[in-house]
């Protein structure tokens, strides 16, 4: 029997993993500059957390969650997103008793049973941020700018920010009633999925990509024209802070996002180079989430960015991340005695910070040199009994082909000098 990775999952292999590591390193760096701190939550949670937090009539909860019973009969779910877990942790660990606001970020795998396609998998990876316990519109702008600044670090500058407000518990019910009335009048023009959502979750209809539905949706009542004074003021303030940061945006009153916990600000960052799946990251404010899952009124805002989508966007723009696979030195070995001495040298070089490799397959010199070439070795050196007896060998620059004779006892110092010259 031949085993394969489950559909919708991928092995991330070297040298591609170097790109992932670079993205993660830059994420740690940028988020730290904004005073966000990493949080690591469990891969699975009690199913009810996501049912209550995300919303029982969302596609994620209805169709996409990986849910199972453990041996104690408890229903558990592999996390389909990160925010509900972060808020659960905030409440459970009583972080609300500490200095506020709390600023977290996370990096890790999420799981949804979706139809695999470009940039969308059943196990996918997100990096995200959550700013908790403040309703300040400036924080909304900070969250948005944080995501944009991170993407700019990777060379993505042609981005489109879509912005909306989805109101609050005070003004949204009236808007939903108007929307429901409008959709009911035009029900026959909607797809079956949207028809079923009119009563259960009418806002989800605005997110439908069906062409027939789009013609109906475009003439639907706009939520931005039905905000209460508080929500309207908050939305204007968010825009004013984005203006201060000189971040361009366009108001998209049809933007509602796919989760029920959003309130007020909702946003998406798009890259048109990605085609149909053009959203790199999105998020918004979720002031009712903590109360829904923990009976505590704590506002919050955040976003999640798909790493697979980010890599696709970089590829589409032909942006090369500054990562290189290879080793500094490959030691080519001839004979058992030379192998023992080389093994000692290998350890010294590695301990001093040099990426070093040697042969472990007892191959001939030619095969070892080919292996060094495949590993993109910067330098190679051949060590045999003759070299040991003379305490000298020739080190070769694999790019230029230049060679230099060195004392084996000085190999460490020679490598330091060679690397220093390259850096200068």
Please give a structural write-up.
This protein is of the alpha+beta class and 424 residues long. It has 15 helices and 16 strands. It has an eight-stranded mixed β-sheet, sandwiched between helices. A five-stranded mixed β-sheet has the order 13-12-14-15-16, with helices on both faces. A three-stranded antiparallel β-sheet has the order 2-4-3. The two termini are 54 Å apart.
Descriptors for this entry?
His-tRNA-ligase, 20% strand, transferase activity, ATP binding, 15 helices, catalytic activity, acting on a protein, alpha+beta, 424 residues, single chain
* DSSP strand content: 15-25%
Number of distinct helices: 15
What is the rounded Rg? 28 Å
> Which term fits the overall shape?
elongated
- CATH superfamily descriptor of the largest domain: Bira Bifunctional Protein, Domain 2
Number of domains: 2
The CATH architecture of the largest domain would be 2-Layer Sandwich
Number of strands: 16
State mean pLDDT (0 to 100 scale): 92
The helix content, as a percent range, equals 25-40%
* End-to-end C-alpha gap: 54 Å
Q: What is the name of the CATH topology of the largest domain?
A: BirA Bifunctional Protein, domain 2
Helix- and strand-based class?
A: alpha+beta
The top level CATH class name of the largest domain? Alpha Beta
**Uncertain ranges:** none
Biggest β-sheet: strands ordered side by side in the sheet:
1-5-6-11-10-9-7-8
